[in-house]
TrEMBL record:
Residues 260-298 form the TRASH domain. This is Xanthine dehydrogenase accessory factor. PANTHER family: ALDEHYDE OXIDOREDUCTASE MOLYBDENUM COFACTOR ASSEMBLY PROTEIN (PTHR30388), MOLYBDENUM COFACTOR INSERTION CHAPERONE PAOD (PTHR30388:SF4). Pfam families: XdhC_C, XdhC_CoxI.
Length: 299
């Protein structure tokens, strides 16, 4: 994939709500093959589209990117040739000393691009409208309606003048982990008690919705609701946040790595990683060339 196609690919993945890491070369020292401004995309499975360097750099980029997409935090990756003085470590930066014989130092910025968390709002009230506006301002993808609640929503806000019990039940059945029910303390407690919920279902329902800030107007109530939802995601480890793409990508596992016995490079063990079994021991290599060199020496 050429650099010209990267923006179109980013737009496609974003529209499909596919998490990925956008990699950009921010500094390159000859004889590195990549140039400043070169770009690539790393998908959750470790596939790389685009060009940010040769095989020596790619393995470091792949492994670091999988950690970035899992953790949801951007990283400045510094790739240095073996023997070169290390850059001083700093928060948000990862330094890798690369033993590849081609040499050349590089800096690459890896930025996670994760789907916006989805918030479903049920109801046609001023509070529902205010929650929608504020959630969109905060970067949530908002859906509205009282039918077909999206099962991948991180939270649901119910603000109606009726059918609350049916909507709460629908949200629970959709496995929405945080359900904000707009109701008075008395009304909310009576409704939840009457439903005969189990402990896990009861824990998902937050009523009265929102943190207590003395809110009176619809925008103020929306502020209290969104504050509670953001707190649940950022500070309380909201169950289901990962699956909704709110903080990090789902099921991203950084694979094991191995050291190439020929060049000493650290390589990610994937199905397509060059591999050789010799003397009952498995070896993985950065390239077919290193594998063939080892096989020849071992024969």
């Amino acid at each position: 994939m050429t650099g010209r196609r990267i923006p179109a690919r980013i737009a496609e993945l974003t529209a499909r709500r596919v998490p990925f890491v956008h990699v950009t070369v921010v500094r390159s020292q000859p004889p590195s093959s990549a140039k400043t401004g070169d770009e690539a995309i790393v998908l959750p499975g470790g596939d790389i589209e685009g060009f940010v360097g040769g095989q020596c750099t790619i393995e470091s980029v792949r492994r670091t990117a999988l950690g970035v997409i899992r953790d949801g935090e951007g990283v400045l990756l510094r790739v240095l040739p073996g023997g070169q003085e290390r850059f001083p470590d700093a928060p948000g930066a990862v330094t890798v000393v690369n033993p590849c014989l081609s040499g050349g130092a590089m800096e690459l910025f890896l930025r996670p691009e994760l789907p916006a968390p989805t918030l479903h709002v049920a109801g046609a009230t001023p509070i529902a409208d205010a929650v929608t506006d504020m959630a969109e301002m905060l970067g949530f993808a908002v859906t509205r309606g009282t039918d077909d609640l999206p099962p991948d929503s991180i939270a649901g806000v119910i603000s109606t003048h009726g059918d609350e019990e049916l909507l709460v039940r629908a949200a629970l059945d959709a496995h929405i982990p945080f359900i904000a029910l707009v109701a008075s303390p008395k009304r909310g407690t009576e409704l939840v008690t009457a439903m005969g919920l189990n402990d896990s279902e009861r824990a998902a329902i937050h009523t009265p919705a929102g943190l207590w800030i003395g809110a009176r107007t619809a925008p103020e109530i929306a502020l209290s609701i969104m504050t509670e939802i953001v707190k649940a995601i950022r500070l309380d480890g909201l169950v289901g946040a990962e699956t909704a793409g709110a903080v990090r990508a789902p099921d991203v596992q950084v694979p094991a790595d191995a050291t190439d016995p020929v060049c000493g490079m650290s390589v990610t063990i994937r199905a397509d990683t060059p591999h050789l079994t010799a003397g009952g021991t498995d070896y993985w290599f950065c390239s077919a060339g290193c594998r063939d060199t080892y096989a020849k020496a071992a024969s």
